[in-house]
Amino acid sequence: MKKKQLIDVIFASEKRKNVLLMLKDGPQEMAVILEELDTNRPALLPQIRILEEHSLVYQSGDSYGLTTIGKIVVDEMKPFLDTIESLNKHSDYLSTHNTESIPDYLFERISELRNCKIIEPSLVNTYEINREFFDKSKESSSMMFVFTFMHPTFLELLSYYLAREIDISMILSRELFNKVKNEYPEELQNTLSNNGVKFYVYNKDIKVSSLSISDDRFVLRLLFANNEFSSKQVYCCHSEAYKWSRDFFDYFMKDAVRITSI
Fold first, then answer.
1. 155-186 pLDDT, tens digit each
2. What percent of the chain has pLDDT over 70?
3. pTM of the predicted model, to two decimals?
4. Could you list the residue ranges that cross the membrane (predicted)?
5. Are 200 and 257 spatial neighbours (Cβ–Cβ below 8 Å)?
6. How many structural domains are present in the chain?
7. CA–CA gap between residue 135 and residue 88 (Å, rounded)
């Protein structure tokens, strides 16, 4: 009998795909596999036989594990499936919002955002802060922000965090910094004089409304594709996505200029 193409072996059957993924962390007994996949032996055995025929899985007694080839395949397969999951979950948001400011190396890691939530506040709450994020951030040791628009509670939030002795690193677009400097010079100078604040200006174009990062979570607001303001938020508190947000902040930081006075 002619062997199937490897791509068909892996992806043409949910059972085969799930068996491979389940064995990623080590061999499993058949009873465990059946329970985890919620299936029965007669339905699963033919699929496992196909995996064995293509040298992806081996049998030892009543247990199954990945062969060397199987490990190579699954190591490549998992990131691909995570990326597809993330794109499927967030395709509407990504296709309608401006992603130009996300560098290629971070877009290639879009799978890390697969567990994030897209939140759309009601009309009356369009400019409200993300309440869950704010409540959790109260216990943070530090906060990081990127802002390109004047949030209504911008200065109030800044004062609140500083009063709680939370260190702040903040990157503003040149336009926003000039606005704050012209309209709130005294408040800005007082803020710059605070040792708990590091203020930066980003002189390049930023296609992001805001990025707010606490010790363990973040909120990202992108502009719509036509560069108009969008109230939708990417909210995440998973460690993998959190690392992504920190790297995104560092991407802006490398070209930002420290401001110590006006």
1. 788 888 888 889 999 999 999 999 988 888 88
2. 95
3. 0.77
4. none
5. yes
6. 2
7. 30
